[in-house]
Amino acid sequence: MNQASGVFDPLADDEKPLRSGPALRAKPTAAGAVAVPVKKFIRFYKPSEVAAYETPADVPLIGEMHLYKGGIFVVGGAPGVGKSFAISSLAVCGATGAPWFGLKLHRRFKTMILQAENGLVRLSSEYKVHCEHAALDD
Q1: The pTM is what?
Q2: pLDDT (tens digit, 9 = 90+) per residue, 110-125?
Q3: Which of 25, 45, 62, 114 could be bridged to 67 by S-S, CB 3.0 to 4.6 A?
Q4: pLDDT in tens, 71-112
Q5: Up-side HSE of residue 37: CA atoms within 13 Å toward CB?
């Protein structure tokens, strides 16, 4: 957890030193045992800590925390309902600053889409609509 922004970063190391005891594991070496910190993957919060948390200004992206920086979300649904189109539209709105399905955009952002289901034929038909925006490639 990046304490400054409140956004989870799975690649960041905890900056706080770990206390001795079960949080340290002995790693034998030729010269003896060395304490190696064990990375914590879950942080537990007290209700009062959660209530006192203030969302940094750069975290909200769309709507009333519908989408936010560092958040993870999954789009699911039956084939053909518009999942790919919705995500492509999200990327366009993030780049252009336009609202996304009527939800307010708080700040512009870049999007990377990992597309594994649709080929170039189907994506081409979607992006012919999306690429009406000038300078979208930038």
Answers
A1: 0.59
A2: 888 877 777 888 888 7
A3: 62
A4: 888 888 998 898 888 988 999 999 989 999 999 999 999 888
A5: 10
